[in-house]
Inverse folding.
DNA sequence: CAAGATCAAACTGTCGACAATCGACGATTA
DNA sequence: TAATCGTCGATTGTCGACAGTTTGATCTTG
């Protein structure tokens, strides 16, 4: 295995875990909207662009396929997943299901350290709100929710959350702007944490439902507002 | 693309969706315990055995990796996933989380047709109970639970269920015998369906909790009873 | 005899090549 | 003119090969 010829502009891919790196690059390109939904992912093109051969690209594509970012059409290639309104509903429905459970478990496992982590993350959310960087804001938002799943202590659930988040990142990225006032978003996390600290399952579920349900409705509204997705190139 | 040289004993792989077929064969070998947990999956070996090259085998392995049946160690290869007691807990915890939700949704979407499907499946469970075919019994059991997820109408949730089921099949396959009397198993599905037909969310959740919780405890007990998993061959 | 160094075989990661297939475009025909 | 067919370039699916790494065995040395 040798070092890879430097692709233009981007830092060169080094030699370990090429597949993982290609997967990350592809994911980036998709959630940033550089590869719009419905567009064809030409193996040779990606390979040339990244300065690798097609084999690692194909393997990475399989990963993203399993993650739901790509769709494979045998003999026709990989295509960037297109989302419809009911996809949004599915994702949020599943997310609600997972996060309710995670929050209840997290409350059960809560220690002073993990509690502080959550509090600190809400602070970060407030700080980020001033930065006018929607992508960053979304990222820090997920980090809070991810923390809850982490604290819940079920690794499979955490992976599921990550998968859902990567699909959502794609959707949010396409919407292009934040669906709400950043400070407002930061604030709405507080009752969730409060409920977790209080530790009453019903209250936790209620607050998680409210919080996620809010995002669900907002995203759903925006998606329906801009129905023809941004130019499914090719 | 040409036809594949016939592997010994098994029907030859034809030319379409080679990756999918290899994946199925591998899954089979794993859940049947022919590839024991911890064992190394040698790409060239599998490839030779199936009469294909290593490329499709690698791609299939990536699929199974994402599904959790294989673990990839960079530069060392793919290994059959090993389950510990806490894996069982994670899987059942997640399954509980999903099936509660699915059952409530299924109740909401229930039509006379889907209701009959569920009833019929319980009959099948009873019929299968007489056959003394544990694998079949487990399969029909899953089919009932899968039906609920199907009726719930969230495709992502259905896929998640399938992934969990394939992990569980592997575990159950390793245990080798059924964890309970087949007729008893068939019977315990009835209250779940009854609750879904009645349509009270709390009752549905309670019955699903009881049903799945029972399997959880039984499987957990058996796993702890036979702690050293069957010879992690090499 | 144990611990470390040395070496060979086995295996993985990646590549380039080639045939089969797809899709677009233009020619042919009714 | 519209529909069908054939051709050609572009792209996928698969393969065999090669380089570098890991592994396990053997040999060396304290």
């Amino acid at each position: 295995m040798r070092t890879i010829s430097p692709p233009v502009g981007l830092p060169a891919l080094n030699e370990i875990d090429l597949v993982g790196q290609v997967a990350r690059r592809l994911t980036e390109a998709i959630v940033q909207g550089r590869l719009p939904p419905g567009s064809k992912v030409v193996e040779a093109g990606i390979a040339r662009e990244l300065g690798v051969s097609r084999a690692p690209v194909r393997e990475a594509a399989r990963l993203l396929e399993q993650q739901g970012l790509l769709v494979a059409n045998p003999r026709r290639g990989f295509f960037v997943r297109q989302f419809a309104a009911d996809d949004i509903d599915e994702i949020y429905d599943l997310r609600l299901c997972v996060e309710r459970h995670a929050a209840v478990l997290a409350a059960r496992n809560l220690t002073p350290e993990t509690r502080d982590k959550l509090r600190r993350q809400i602070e970060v959310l407030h700080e980020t709100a001033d930065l006018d960087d929607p992508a960053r804001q979304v990222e820090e938002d997920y980090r809070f929710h991810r923390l809850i799943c982490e604290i819940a202590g079920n690794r499979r659930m955490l992976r599921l959350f990550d998968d859902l988040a990567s699909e959502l990142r794609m959707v949010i990225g396409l919407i292009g702007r934040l669906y709400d006032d950043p400070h407002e978003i930061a604030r709405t996390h507080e009752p969730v944490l409060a409920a977790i600290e209080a530790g009453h399952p019903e209250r936790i579920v209620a607050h998680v439902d409210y919080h996620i349900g809010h995002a669900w409705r907002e995203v759903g509204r925006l998606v329906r507002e801009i129905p023809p997705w941004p130019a499914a190139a090719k």
Remarks:
- The longest strand of chain B covers residues 70-73.
- The two ends of chain B are 35 Å apart (CA to CA).
- Residues 33 and 215 of chain B are 21 Å apart (CA to CA).
- Chain B has a mean pLDDT of 89.
